[in-house]
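<context>
A single protein, sequence plus fold
<sample>
Here is the protein in question:
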Amino acid sequence: MSSTPSASRWNENQELIGQGLAKIAAAFSQTMPVSGSFSRSALNLAANAATGMASIISALCVLVALLLLTPLLRHLPQPVLAAIIVMALWNLINVRSLRNAWRASADDALAAALTFGATIAFAPQIQNGIFTGILASLALFVYRRMWPRITVAEPGSPALARELPQEHEEALRVVLGLVRFDASLVFVNVSYFEQAVFGLERRYPHLRYIVVSAYAINSIDASGVETLSRLVEELSKHGIALVLTGVKPQVQDVLERTGLVQRIGAGNFYATDYAAMVALAGREAARVASAPTDSARLPAAPAEG
């Protein structure tokens, strides 16, 4: 039973890779540099070409045109040839994709617009436009990750009340703060994370626990490890314990290799926020029971609004 091979989708990146490899081979075989036509590939795509034979036929047509039709084509003005190329490439311009990119992320749309504008401005040196787009994309990528989403539930706030187990709300509502960091902890955003934690400590000096919800921290680098180490040291001077919840295995491995687990304390790592709050409520109850009455008295919760 024979089967017809399925057509492969045109991959413009693969074509450019092939052209680049052909140029490298030409450099070592004393031949002329290889070139291709992006517009010819676009025409093949529009004609529903399904196999590599389409490129061979296209090349043969170009050869016939060069050998036989040049005297007829020489009188065509260049604007006519430009119009042919523009019409061939028109289908590659996807305005809907640009509109969707703007709706999804203005940064992506800005990078696309810069690339398009630079390509037009630097024509025919289109590689300069491509380099501009790459640099713009990298710059915007780093910029977005400098200030990721961070949620701070302050003591006594409704946001924290929603996170606390109801049976332990009274014990923890004014001694615990929660920080949820929705990004990897790397060099571009460690200062932002550090400011959020220290800001919480400065605003509420009566804190005893700062819980870092680390579910979204997929990786941590040397700057992140150094920042956590500094936070543990500074917070411990004020009697505040740094507690981590939901730490992923790859992040846990880094913390163990760098010895930070020992500095934070194995008892300050919990699988979930709920487990951490239940354990901290027990700690707080034991502390209040063992401390003198005056020193164990909790400060009043801050007024809302």
In short: Confidence is low (pLDDT under 50) at residues 1-5, 294-305. The chain is about 60% helix and 5% strand. The domain at 150-296 is CATH 3.30.750.24 (Transcription Regulator spoIIAA). The beta strands are 150-153, 176-181, 209-213, 241-245, 269-270.
